[in-house]
Amino acid sequence: MEHVDQNAVGTLLTVYTDIDLLALELCADRIGTAPTLEAKLELAHQVEEERIHFRIQEKWLATIGMPFRSPIDPLHRKAILERFSRMDWFDFLSCLQIGIEGIGISLVEKVASRADEGTRASLEIPIRDEKRQTSFGLSELRRIVSEASPEEREDLTERLLANLNDLYTMAEECLPVRFEDYWSRLGLTREEMWETVHQKTLEMFEALGLSRALPEAFSCK
């Protein structure tokens, strides 16, 4: 059996687990101001899914001797929550459902493909659910895009690009992990991972009926 760097896998899984917890907090905070009843119910559903994801991964981390400790310090966490709370529905969905759940989960899938059997099992339900969450975000955003004029579509494209740029900057500031170091320990190259990000990002723009584009923060990688 091929050796798996358990420390690398556990470190990355700890980050993913904390992001699930953060997504739970973001969705819970947004329920009251979601624009429709369906949106409120969907966010409530996601809160429960994220709770389940957190518990599954928390249990596995304890099993491999790496008990969960949040890598996001409290001040950064507060800043993230406050920033999301100021977003309108389009920006919120762009960052959470497209950036974190959509593009982010494509990287989690790559890591899972190189992880041990127990870690893959701990990620199976989260990966499945987060694809469903992304589908909801895409549906809501497509509705907004479909109602926009050509000029407004150009503006929405620029806003989506800006949101993804901001999300990347936020992740660099708030996550004290050099991801590329841990990817390489699992045999995943920097180029391979960024190509995954590029492909998924372009797919998202195409699914929204927007011109295919990459955020500046992604295009130079």
From TrEMBL:
Record-annotated Ferritin-like domain positions: 7-146
InterPro entries per the UniProt record, alphabetical: Ferritin-like, Ferritin-like_SF, Ferritin_actino
Pfam assignment, any one: MiaE_2
Designated name of the protein: Ferritin-like domain-containing protein
